Amino acid sequence: MKMARKSGMRLCSYTVVHDTGFAPNPFGGYCTLAACTPNHQGINLSRGDWLVGHATAKRAHRLIYAMKVFDALDFDTYYNDSRFESKKPRFDRTWREACGDNIYYLTDGGVWMQHPTNFHDDPESRAQDTRNPRVFVSKHFHYFGANAPKIPKQFSPFIRDRQGCKCDYPVQLVKTFVKWLEMNFTPGVLGEPFDFIPIQTPTRITHHPNALAQVRQVCVPDCNH
Predict the structure, then answer these.
(1) Range 42-51 burial, b when 16+ CB lie within 10 A, else e
(2) Rounded Cα gap, residues 159 and 83, in angstroms
(3) Which residues of 133-171 are buried (b: 16+ CB within 10 A; e: fewer)?
(4) How many helices (H) and strands (E) does the chain have?
(5) Could you tell me the CA-to-CA distances from 90 to 19, 120, 213, 214, 215 in Å, in that order?
(6) How far apart are CA 98 and CA 65, in angstroms?
(7) Is the pLDDT of residue 208 over 60?
(8) What is the pTM of this model?
(9) Residue 197: its pLDDT value, please?
(10) Domain segments of the chain: what residues?
(11) Residue 5 — left, alpha, or beta (φ > 0 → left; ψ -120 to 50 → alpha)?
């Protein structure tokens, strides 16, 4: 269900259950979100809006990332855009390349195919991901990962204690949050993912029947959003 657009800066917040480097993916000079709660809900965001993901209650709802939306692309455009080539999973380098989120493209016949990946490679996840095939792109973001700071009490309305993404926050509260963020933190990658496993070399070769070629794959943590 797409959210109605309101005037002014918009912010959508949700809980990041597994912070593996896949969703969000803050590497390669862009922070992207392609296969997580806001995508699955079909959230409609415009340039200048914000996405905020915080940790679970077990991790004290700390701020994992905040990204200012620069663009929203369909999966096939994203896959074929040379700017995001580095976000296609690679399994002959480091864990960062292995957790790329650029994994969906269309065949000439209009069928969704999945690039070899260790994430969301089951039929149910693929169907969920491609129901609303849109990726949010940011060039201005704060990704904290395991260095996630506490969210000040005044911004507690952004914290979600249930599944789903919420977007109907007062514009002034959003502006105050962005001001706090910008005044206290430098944009960019400010920490490693909470749940990453630093594997540097491939451990097995697997053929994906829904992909076009055999590729090397490494054991990295699953991401069940």
Answers:
(1) ebbbeeebbb
(2) 33
(3) bbbbbbebbbbbbbebeebeeebeebbbeeeebbbebee
(4) 5, 12
(5) 19, 16, 13, 12, 8
(6) 20
(7) no
(8) 0.84
(9) 65
(10) 11-74+132-196
(11) beta
Which position has the token pair 């491609």? 130
In angstroms, rounded to a whole number, what is the distance separating the alpha carbons of residues 95 and 201? 8
Kindly list the distances between the CA atom of residue 158 and the CA atoms of 9, 101, 177, in Å, as whole numbers in the listed order. Answer: 15, 25, 10
pLDDT digits (tens, 9 = 90+) for 97-136: 889 999 999 999 999 999 988 888 788 888 889 999 999 9
Assigned token pair, 67: 């990204």
Report phi then psi at 130, rounded to 5.
Answer: -90, 0
Which residues are CB-contacts of 175 (< 8 A; sequence separation ≥ 6)? 9
Whether the ω angle into residue 24 lies within 30 degrees of 0, i.e. cis, is: yes
Q: Which residues contact 207 (CB under 8 A, 6 or more apart)?
A: 214
End-to-end CA gap in the chain = 17
Integer angstrom CA distances of residue 103 from 68, 69, 116, 173: 22, 20, 7, 35
Query: How is residue 52 written in tokens?
Result: 């905020």
Instruction: Report the Cα 196 to chain-centroid distance in Å.
Output: 14
Beta bridge mates, 67? 51, 141
d(CA 139, CA 185) in angstroms, rounded, equals 15
